């Protein structure tokens, strides 16, 4: 099988500062200020063309960071990402300009992707119809609800026909009917051999749609395998996690991050 995505030893480092003064000093002085924080540590995985992969993990595990790196929105600090095809990211309000109307956002997005005026004119009605925003399409996006923004972003992305589609919590907002409609569109993409990454807290959606699962835990890969293999383990973990006190969760997080840093430095 041909590889669609190869993520090799990818890490993402941020600097955490105690206020703007530290941030400024870090920029203008040779001394290092701020604390290093790794959102991802040595992440490795590969996706074949046509794979449907779910990203799971509790909040703060790096799912959206990895999605944004694969989509080319964020640069990795270390490692490499190799892609075979065009990528589209669907996330709530991702890439939308709040001051522009829905229609203007469609036109701007398509122009940035290299579509000409004739192609935009042909695609625009399909995008508007799929988004179900006909009555609001000429209103500024800043007046949209999160569900409306998600619908517009989804409609744009699926109609530009990408090779790799990344859906980051975009179906967790809005109405159930649109979520079902979106899942049907994703099934159509699946049948056409598209590669998809699905980020969601909905285990039900994962079981229904994904073939493989990448489980991230505080920036590191905990498990990667078939849905039948990984989801039961993740569900067992969630049961234990929910029973933990706040202090127990903090200790667990510190242990996991410390272990990841040891592996990074070894």
Short description:
The chain has helices at residues 20-28, 63-70, 102-112, 117-131, 146-159, 176-191, 203-209, 227-243, 246-265, and strands at residues 3-16, 35-48, 52-56, 78-83, 87-91, 164-168, 195-199, 212-217, 220-226. Helices cover 44% and strands 25% of the residues.
Q: What does the model show?
A:
The strands form 2 sheets. This protein has a 6-stranded mixed sheet with strand order 5-6-7-3-8-9, with helices on both faces. The protein has one domain (3-86, 162-265): 3-Layer(aba) Sandwich (Rossmann fold). It has helices at 20-28, 63-70, 102-112, 117-131, 146-159, 176-191, 203-209, 227-243, 246-265, and strands at residues 3-16, 35-48, 52-56, 78-83, 87-91, 164-168, 195-199, 212-217, 220-226. By secondary structure, it is of the alpha/beta class. It starts with a strand and ends with a helix.
């Amino acid at each position: 099988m041909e590889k669609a995505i190869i993520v090799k030893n990818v890490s993402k480092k941020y600097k955490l500062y105690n206020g703007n003064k530290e941030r400024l000093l870090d920029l203008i002085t040779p001394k290092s200020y701020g604390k290093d924080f790794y959102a991802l540590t040595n992440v490795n995985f590969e996706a074949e063309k046509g794979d449907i992969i779910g990203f799971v993990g509790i909040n703060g595990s790096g799912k959206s960071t990895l999605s944004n790196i694969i989509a080319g929105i964020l640069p990795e600090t270390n490692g490499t990402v190799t892609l075979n095809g065009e990528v589209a990211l669907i996330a709530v309000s991702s890439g939308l300009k709040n001051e522009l109307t829905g229609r203007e956002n469609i036109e701007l997005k398509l122009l940035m992707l290299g579509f000409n005026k004739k192609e935009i004119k042909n695609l625009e009605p399909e995008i508007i119809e799929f988004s179900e925003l006909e009555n609001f399409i000429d209103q500024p996006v800043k007046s949209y609800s999160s569900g409306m923004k998600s619908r517009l972003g989804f409609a744009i992305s699926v109609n530009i026909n990408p090779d790799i589609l990344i859906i980051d919590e975009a179906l967790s907002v809005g109405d159930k009917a649109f979520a079902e409609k979106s899942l049907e569109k994703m099934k159509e993409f699946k049948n056409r051999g598209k590669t998809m990454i699905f980020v969601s807290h909905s285990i039900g959606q994962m079981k229904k749609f994904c073939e493989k699962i990448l489980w991230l835990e505080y920036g590191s890969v905990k498990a990667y395998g078939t849905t039948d293999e990984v989801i039961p383990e993740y569900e067992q973990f969630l049961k234990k996690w929910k029973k933990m006190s706040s202090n127990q969760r903090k200790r667990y997080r510190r242990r996991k991050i410390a272990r990841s840093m040891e592996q990074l430095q070894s």
